[in-house]
TrEMBL record, chain A:
<comment type="function">
    <text>NDH-1 shuttles electrons from NADH, via FMN and iron-sulfur (Fe-S) centers, to quinones in the respiratory chain. The immediate electron acceptor for the enzyme in this species is believed to be ubiquinone. Couples the redox reaction to proton translocation (for every two electrons transferred, four hydrogen ions are translocated across the cytoplasmic membrane), and thus conserves the redox energy in a proton gradient. This subunit may bind ubiquinone.</text>
</comment>
<keyword id="KW-0520">NAD</keyword>
<dbReference type="InterPro" id="IPR001694">
    <property type="entry name" value="NADH_UbQ_OxRdtase_su1/FPO"/>
</dbReference>
<protein>
    <recommendedName>
        <fullName>NADH-quinone oxidoreductase subunit H</fullName>
        <ecNumber>7.1.1.-</ecNumber>
    </recommendedName>
</protein>
<keyword id="KW-0874">Quinone</keyword>
<feature type="transmembrane region" description="Helical">
    <location>
        <begin position="79"/>
        <end position="98"/>
    </location>
</feature>
<dbReference type="GO" id="GO:0048038">
    <property type="term" value="F:quinone binding"/>
</dbReference>
<keyword id="KW-0812">Transmembrane</keyword>
<feature type="transmembrane region" description="Helical">
    <location>
        <begin position="110"/>
        <end position="133"/>
    </location>
</feature>
UniProtKB/TrEMBL annotation, chain B:
<dbReference type="InterPro" id="IPR042106">
    <property type="entry name" value="Nuo/plastoQ_OxRdtase_6_NuoJ"/>
</dbReference>
<feature type="region of interest" description="Disordered">
    <location>
        <begin position="188"/>
        <end position="229"/>
    </location>
</feature>
<dbReference type="GO" id="GO:0005886">
    <property type="term" value="C:plasma membrane"/>
</dbReference>
<comment type="function">
    <text>NDH-1 shuttles electrons from NADH, via FMN and iron-sulfur (Fe-S) centers, to quinones in the respiratory chain. Couples the redox reaction to proton translocation (for every two electrons transferred, four hydrogen ions are translocated across the cytoplasmic membrane), and thus conserves the redox energy in a proton gradient.</text>
</comment>
<keyword id="KW-0812">Transmembrane</keyword>
<feature type="transmembrane region" description="Helical">
    <location>
        <begin position="159"/>
        <end position="180"/>
    </location>
</feature>
<dbReference type="InterPro" id="IPR001457">
    <property type="entry name" value="NADH_UbQ/plastoQ_OxRdtase_su6"/>
</dbReference>
<comment type="similarity">
    <text>Belongs to the complex I subunit 6 family.</text>
</comment>
<feature type="transmembrane region" description="Helical">
    <location>
        <begin position="25"/>
        <end position="43"/>
    </location>
</feature>
Amino acid sequence: MNDALDVSLRLLIVFVVFLTFPLIIGQTEHKVMAHMQGRLGPMYAGGFHGWAQLVADGVKFAQKEDIVPTGADRRIFQLAPAVALLPYLLVLLAIPIGPGEGAVGEVIDAGIFFVLAVMGVGVLGSLMAGWASANKFSLLGGLRTAAQLLAYELPMLLAAASVAMAAGTVSLPGILDAFEWWWLPWQIVGAIVFFVAGLAELQRPPFDMPVADSEIIFGAYTEYTGLRFALFLLAEYAGIVVLCGLTTVLFLGGWHGPWGADGLGWVWTLLKAAALAFIVIWLRVTYPRLREDQLQKLSWTLLVPLSLAQIALTGIVKVVIQ
Amino acid sequence: MSPTSAALTTAADTHGFLSPTGVEIAFLLVGLVTFGAALVTVTTRQLVHAALWLVATLGGLAVEYLLLTAEFIAWVQVLIYVGSVVVLLLFGLMLTKAPIGRSPDADSGNRWAALTVALAAAATLIWVVVDAFRTTWIDLEGPAAGSTKATGESLFQNWVLPFEGLSVLLLAALVGAIVLSRQAKETAADGPGTGCRSGNRTEAGAPSATGVPAPAATEPGAPSEKESR
């Protein structure tokens, strides 16, 4: 009885986090982008500084008619948003926010492999949407998504492998238990590679070639309306939560902090993840979109060699300190 | 699926057929689902559906590994096969004409030969597995026999030579793929100026199927192929 209660409570908490954190990031994005661009942003919904704008957006999406194009592959078209969104829910289960068993949804032995594997599955949703829409813009978006994933999966894996080598374990809580402050400068290259590759995998600006609205309307999501479109958007923001959480856990020491690490470890995790989410938004406002060939070039000629160099450095330091 | 389930039933003789545990029942059910998905993969006439059923098949295999406590292998299975191989497959299907609905030419005249080869391969595998693990029983209750630690230790202590051999094999395949794709590029560049474009397109399409990461090169071919549909 107690076990069942424990498990269902954990699942409930992870589910609530999954539903609220992406919305918080979405609202922050509205406001931060508005400030950085010297404009107001949404100000009316809800009264105080437009806090209810996302709720209003949600109501609007729910009211819209759910349209499936005549030429589309009906079942795959309808299934795609779920395939895009659900993997991020599963990944959230494995991210620890504090020390001990109580602060993680489920301790997974091969945690790094689990999160990277399941995140890779999410891209299948975009591919299914791109193909099943029977629209050439969608198909182009799907193609670009696939090309981008194939290019950036490798540096992301290599950067994560470097941390696993440093810690001597592939379990996420295990990596945090082994963390020392000097890992920060030691793994900094890997951290940047991981974060950039993660951004590219989420198709966030400046890596939003697959949904480039000035060229191919909205890529794989062109034909989607209403709730299904909202699910794709939610997947993007859930992806930001997951990427920031993972970078925090793998490279920034998660719950470790200069002080207050005993009882308030989870505050550190959330603060670090929030700072990273701010950077994600900042990058969106700052940088222009990379062209397709620049995208591929960045990955194969810069990120992959950098991550390999990081692995070599990790190996050398690891041997020396033993 | 079938080799491992065969091993399970042989081993079950010592532990009794009549009182299967929950894990064994789940293993068999997932195995049946995986087998069904695999059958649909090879029989469906819709190309992209076949690739997506392949996702279900490979995912089912990952669940089987999980049930046998081989957690590491399960996640690697998802990472490599579902996350990369199927994405590559879908990428290739999207570059070619993969129509929505049935493809009339998705059937092959070689189907009986293919079936024979498949059955022979399955029989060989089942025979090998049954012969090798005749009475071995995996203890699911104790410490996980397939944990990352256990897998890593046995891989790098007992099986280093096959591991290194496989690495060299994969490296050779990689180098070979690069050589092939570069040759294709050179022959296309040698051709006359006007004929170069169409030649480039067909040549550039081939390496992507062999796993060479050259999506940027194949991309420009896509819109014109799509428009001609």
